Structure formats: C-alpha cells, structure tokens
Amino acid sequence: MRLMQTFRSLMRAPRFSISVMLTLGLGLAVTLLMWAVLWHAVLEPLPYRDAGALSVLSAERDGQNSGLSSAEAEQLPAQLPPGYSLTSFYWNGTTYTGGERPEAVTTVGVAANFFDVIGIRPLLGRGLLDSDGDSANVVIAEFVWRKYFNSDPNIIGKVFKEEGGDSVIVGVAPRSLAYPGREVSYFKAIDWAAQREQSAGYLNARYLEGVLRAPTGIDADVAFKALMATHAKLGEQLGAPVQDWKLAAQSFEQARRGDVAAPLFALTGLSLLVLLVAATNAAHLVLTRGRQRAAAFGVMDALGASRGDLARVVLLETALLAAFAAGLAFLLCWTVWKLSPDLSDSGLAIDPELGVGLILNPKLALAALVLSMFSILLAGAYPAWNIAKLGAGSALRAQRSGARAKHWLGIPGTALSLVALFCAGLFLSSSLALRDQRLGLNVDGVVNAQLFMRGEAGGNNGPKFAAQAQALLDGAAKIPGAKSVAISNGVPFTPVFGPRYELSGGPALLGSAVLQTTVISVLGDPIKTLGYTLQAGRALSSSDSATAARVILVSEGFAKQYFGDKNPLGASVALPPNGSGKPLKFSVVGVLADARRIAPDVAPRPEVWVPFAQYPAHSLAVFVRGAPGGLKAVQDVVWQQDPTQAIFRAYAISDDLASLTAAPRFFARFAGLFGWLALTLAVLGTYAILAFNVTERAREFALRTALGARPMMLVRALIWESFAALIPGLLLGLLTALALGQWLQMQVYGAPSLMLPALLATSLVLITSLAASLAAARPATKIVLNNALKAI
Amino acid sequence: MSSPQPQPVIELRQLEKSYPLASGAHFVLRQINLAIAAGEFVSITGPSGSGKTSLLNIIGLLDHDWKGEFKLSGEAVHKANAKRRDALKREHIGFIFQHYHLLDDLTVAENLDLPLGYRDIPRSERAARVADMLDRFGIVGKKDLYPRQLSGGQQQQVAVARALITRPSLLLADEPTGALHTDQGEKIMDLLEELHRSGSTIVQVTHNPKHAARASREIRLRDGWME
To answer: Which whole-number Å values give the CA distances from B31 to B17, B57, B222, in the listed order?
Structure first.
C-alpha cells in the first residue's frame, strides 16, 4: 500500500524521478562496472585449491632472470621437505592435423604432478602419471574438446591427430585452469629420461617454469627458505650449473593477474567518487522536493506522524528510485560491456568468454544491493533528517516563505569531481607517456606469419631451413605493394620467438660473467621492414651466405655491456653452436640502435642479429611491410611453398603492440570517462542549486529590481553565492587529489607529474562551474516584476 | 450532593509565546489563562496578528516553543518530552486546516486512512473505520477520487472526516471556512455544530463573526492578550 502510494507520488513528479534515477543510475553503473572488472581481474579467488600456497619460481644470476633447468625441475621435488611439492612446465607447440588445414597450436610439457600441485581436477578422465612421460598420452584443454571434438562425452581414449605421431587423450582440463595460458591446447608429461640424455642441456638449459606448493598455513617466506635450502643441497650435488643460480619466487596470484591491482583499485575508487557526486546531487534533488512539499509534511505531522514516519516517506521514495536506478545501472553496464571493445579487450586477466556472466552474477547483485543502500543513505538520509526535524509549524509556514537549496551541498560534488578529473589526468599522462615512448622500431603496417619448420631443431637441418626461408622471402617479395620484406626468428612484442643465450668472453665482462642476449637470425631487409635504426657499420645482406665470413650486428646496449668502451666494429662475438660442435665466432659489422622489443614499458635488452644462412633457426616469421591485404597474401606465400605447412600465428604486429598497452589505455579511458561524468554531474548539481534558488527567490529579485538593483548586480550576487561552495570545494578537492596523487603516481607507468593534472582539473572545474553559475543566474535578470510580485 | 466538576480538556495558565528580537522579545501571546471543558465548542477570534493561529498551534501540540503551563486532558504538556507530546497529539487531537491540506497524491480513502496509519491500528480496523467515515459523510462514491477532482467544500468535508477518523477528544479547526464560498462555509459550520451536539469538543479559529457566534463560547484575542 505505502509502496504503491510512493510509486504514484513519484509518477506525479516525473522530472524529479527521472533526474534522480538517471543520476543515481549513472553513478551506480560506473561503480558496478568497475567492481565487476576488479572482482574478475583481482579479487575473485583463483579456482585452484588453496591458491595462496602457490608460488611461481624462476632463477636469477647476476641480475638476470631465467627459468629452471631440467635437472632442478626433476630433482628438486624429491628433496623438498615433507608437505612441499613442486611442478614445472615448458612451452611447446605442435601441428594439429585433424582439421581442414594443418593448424599450429601451443602445447606445454608438464611434470606429471602438474594438476595435483596446481590443485585442479580434470573435467573428464584423469590427470597425468609419471608413466605417461614416454607415452603419447595427453590431457587436452576444454576449448580443444569443444572446438575439435564437439564436446564428445566419450572423448577419453580418442586420438588427437598431429604431425609426427598422434596423441591419445586421457583427460580434459577444465576451462577454469587457464594456466599457464588460455591458448594451451594440451598438456603432455615430460619424459625425464629423454631430458637426462641431453646431458649438457639437462643441467644448463633453463627453459622450465616452476610452481611451488607450500604446506597449508606455512608463510611464503618460510616456504621460500625451505626451497632455498633444498636448492643449495642440490647445488652441492650438481655443481656450478645449479650453484651459480639463485631461485626467486613470486606469489602465484600476482604472477597470474599481473600488476593491475593498484590501478584497478584506484579506478574503482574513482568510480565511487562518481557515485558520491551522483548521490550528493540526488540528495539535493530529494531535499529540494522535500522542502517544496514542506506543507504536506506539516499536515502529516499534524495528523500524528512521528519524525520516523516523515523520514520513512523520504527514505522510501529514495529507496524506490535507487532500486530503479540499480536496474538501469545493470542495463547500462551490460550495454557498455557489449559495446566497448576496450572492456572486453582490456588486457586484464578476465575470461573473454565470460560474456554476460561478468555482470550477472550473485556477487555483483550483492554489490549492487550494497551500493544501492549506500546511495539511499547518502541521497536520502540528510533530506529525511532535515525534513523530519522541520516540525509541522515551520513546515506549514515554509509553504509561504519558500525553500532555499543548500549551497554547501555543492562542496562535495566540486571536490570529488576535481579529484576524479585529477586522477583521470594522471592516468592519461601515464598512458600518453607509454604511447609516446620511443620504441626504436616501427611496426605500423607490418604483418607477419609465424611457423615452425618441419624437422628437428639443432640437427643437420640448418641448410634445409635456410633454403626454405630464402624461398619464403622470395615469395613474400612478390606480394603486390610490399615495400620491404624480411624473415627472422625474433618477433617484436612476443616472448615465444627470439631465443636467449648466455654469451661470455666479452672484453667488458669480468671473469666468468655472462651476458644474456637475444640471438636473432635474419634474412632480407629487417632494418627497413621492422623500422630499426643502423647506428654504425653496415646492414646484413644476401651476400652474407652460409659460406661467406660469419658476420653479426649488435645492439647499442649489447655493445656497451659486452665490449665496454672498445669499438665493436670488427670485434668478434662467440655464439653457441647451432646444433652440435664448437662455438661459432662472428665478426661485428654493424651496430643497431636499442629497441624496446619486449614491450614499450620494458627497457631494451642486449640483442644481436646474424644472417639466417649462417645461423639457421627452426622457427621463423615472414614479415611484410606496406602490402594492402598483406595478411592473407603472406599466408598464401607460406602455403604456396607447402600447402601442409601449419601457420602458428598470422597478424599485424601493431595488434600485439596495442594489446600490450591495452591495460594502461583501459585505465586512462575509463578514468577519463569517470572524470567527465563526475564533472558533468557536479556542474549539473551547481547549476540545479543556483537555478532552484533563482526560481524560489523570484519575489526577492523582483523587489530588489523594483528598488533599483541592476540585473548584473543580481547575477553578481548569485555567482558570489555559488563561489561560497566552489572555493572550499576546489581547495578540498585539490588537497585530496595531491595526497592521493602521491600514491597513484607510483602505481602507473612513467611516474607522471602531479602539477599539470592538478592545474588542468582545477581550471576545468572552475571554468565549467562558473559557466553553469552564469547560465543558472541569467534568468534572474529576466524576472517580470508584476508576475513575480503577484505570485506571492 | 453536587456532581464533581468535569476535568477541563484544555487548561492553560500564564501561557506566553515570544520571538527574540535584537531590541528584546516580540510577544505573540501574553499571560493566557484558559480552560475548555469537554463538549464545549469554542471560537477564538481577533484581528490579524492577534495570536489566534499561534494559540491553536500550541493547543494542537504543533508548537512547543512557549512558556507557562498547559494541561491536556489532565496531563501536563509543559512537563512532557517530545515523544510523549507526539503520543498525546496522536491520542487526543484532530486538526482541520483552512486550505484543507489533503495530500494530492492520495485518494479520498487514502487521505482518510493516513492518520490511522500513524497510530498502529490494524489494517482490518482501519478499513472498517474508513468505510464508516465515508458512509457517515456521504462520500462513498468519491472514495477513489483525488483531491483535485473535488470542490473546495467537498475537500473540506473530507478534511473534517480525516480529522474525526482517529476519534479525537479535541477537534481543532483553523479558519475551516476561510477558503470556501458562503454556502460551502455554512455547510461546514452545520457539520461542526452537529459534531458538537454529538459531544465533540471543538476549538475553531475564525475571522467570521457569524460563524464565531455559532460556537458555545467566544474567546477574543488582541495583540496576544485575551480580552
């Protein structure tokens, strides 16, 4: 009954109801959306048993990071104290041949205890066993089960067709595993016996990643000390290849989710500011409507309503509007999620197949409820209290005296919008700094197709790989419109391609020190194609054949760290044998300017280029610059050479670059959006307060005019009144923004300056508020004297 | 043996109300001593600004900012706290306003139900009382209409019904005919007289000497003093 009456009352005030609903709905929508993103990207518990007990392991030496060796990965688990377990994996790939075209897919080799240690059960079948190491048994990923096997419930025992021998499916991993990556097609047990057979590689090659599970309740530091002690013991047994390295551990959760928690918390805080501004505006609207209905409240009081009864009327109205606003917020969230590519491609660890589940889930519904209650309290509590304390006598008189909006209600709105704009400015500065970061290479308009050539890497297939690469280059050069083409096993902005070796013997390297270096085999014109800069010497050319003198290009950073002050041109660099044999010496013929090849926010690393013919690689990418429709053309080039050749990936490199900056861009865009929303709401609030007062004080202004006041005097007086709220709001906002900025500055890329965003945000709020005040005060100059006086 | 004097419904002693001014205090009511017995129909009259409405608001427990003694049905209002005053108001007072003050968003029936809702009366009894009141005032056919669909006289009729529905021991009317045409005003006065005859205690504030004369007693105020 009361609810229906309240609903009817709201229906009779459509402008008020819609304004409050839209204002709160907007505030709730942005907060809910950010909460949804924060929840899925940071707060949602990982789907692994006791995920807090997991750590990701790597190895460090002389400040250089690497993975675990096979020896460590195999022998450490058995020597760990009771209750501890360790698993490991390495990235691999294969060619799936069960489809229309061969398809290169990513796989991982894992220790048999992988699923047990990570703490997740297979969806179907079983995990891996030690005995699976020398078998063809694999556990496929859930997406493979869906995509290639149509979710066949009888999949266990069926065959996964691939080049070089089919695998037998013994289990299906659940989608929630998503580790070590969503792109992993299957998990195969590592054959430790085969690893041991490569005696040098078993001890020295560090390409495995480790995951440690500590016993429940054991502190991460204690667990790490136990691991270090075990590693030290192993080092004593295995000598320098293990002893020289120290293990490093990182929280599994942090490794899985990336360093996005702080910016996401900041963004969520920012969205809460928008909600606060919205709630302040709504509070003002509710209060204004309440004061306009003072007489009705007075009557209720006279008829026996208690203060609680009066407050309930206001709160019930606000609650009903907040409920509608929450519904609207869900709708807005869903629309934004569907329409915004930034959200679904934010670079955050959110399942891209989550879809509507991002918004429609019980946790979000609970958050919506809590936030709505919060809004009701913020928007309704003060007006309810204000109206309840009015009393019947004053309320009935208020009908005649007119109500005035509270100027101080504009203070929080002004302050909060300034803070929101300031944060947006900070995020934007950071994003721009990242965008404008000098990369040292230019991949605009460059497409590439990546493939693994048939045949064992490191064997006697080198000449064959070199011939195939040359054929691919010749084919690519014929693509119509191609400005330049190249072949390389180093692809910018992807960790998969580009092998790293430890090079020793440099004049600047002390003793047995080594320099971790990416060694890239190139063919064609990679400098022009990938936009590198040659600083000194000459580029590599087609004359640098397999039989010619071995030559090498080194990066500026490599030259400094390897040669020191010595002129690198003409000096020699020894690379590990390409296959078996002795190290190979190359003569430096050129120096490349440093390039941020890993990511825009990762400093350039030492890098050398060698002719493909002199140092052939098993994996390669064909690069084409400037060819319209080049992506299809470059794929065709590969398939013209060999129709059964699987292409691992084919894409424009700028897409990868864009995805690397997706998260900062997402932060900047959403911070900007929230900043503008907060400003718009705050300015509307300032306008509404002043406009309401102008209307309510029509008689006063008419009298002032009758007594000789000039229109501009009235406007000036009104603007001074609005400044009474604006100046404290600006000061409060500025102080809060600068305090918050100290922390936020440390969380975003480039540590942007605080002064510029502070100055811009203050100016923007000041100018827009002034404009809103002028617009609102203008009608005071147009009050028709007779009408205004008669209206009383 | 004579029967004991009935206890006055209202008893005011040395009641004063003032507003503070820079130069002292502006008195609205001065040394009011008044007793109104149960079943009386009293008119308070006087020129504008004489303190009529202020006195009615104090009697109706809408204004608590005054000095002196005030007993309502024997209970000392001047000693009661806010909660008790609210309870006394709900228990004893019915109010009729000059401008009817029906709530625009509520139907006639809902307006009648409103004061019952503030008194924790069970839903079934509330419905019965509303039906009874609609019947008694002959407005059953208008129960689903909104105030804007009624004439001024009909609205004041509903306002009287709303004031009576809680069965108050004291009915206060502030210029009940002030906003009505003569004929409609007479009808409302007939209604108040009828209520008086049936035993209700009524205090009305009025400017109209003819309507004031229809009460059993007239109290005149001038500049806050009782004449």
So the answer is: 9, 16, 12
